[in-house]
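Standup notes, protein team

Yesterday: finished cleaning the Vibrio parahaemolyticus set.
Today: tRNA (Guanosine(46)-N7)-methyltransferase TrmB structure.
Blockers: none.

Input for tRNA (Guanosine(46)-N7)-methyltransferase TrmB:
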Amino acid sequence: MSEVTTNEYNEDGKLIRKIRSFVRREGRLTKGQENAMNECWPTMGIDYKAE
């Protein structure tokens, strides 16, 4: 359990950041986003149709 990790760098010497976790962020529309979707969808949105 005493694993040692080392940082990795690219050719320019910049640190390559690793992804630490994956978080699902679905279902979090603000009121403004929801209003914009409702207003703009009829003219700008494309409805999904299974073919």
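Follow-up from PR in the comments: Residues 8-44 form one domain.
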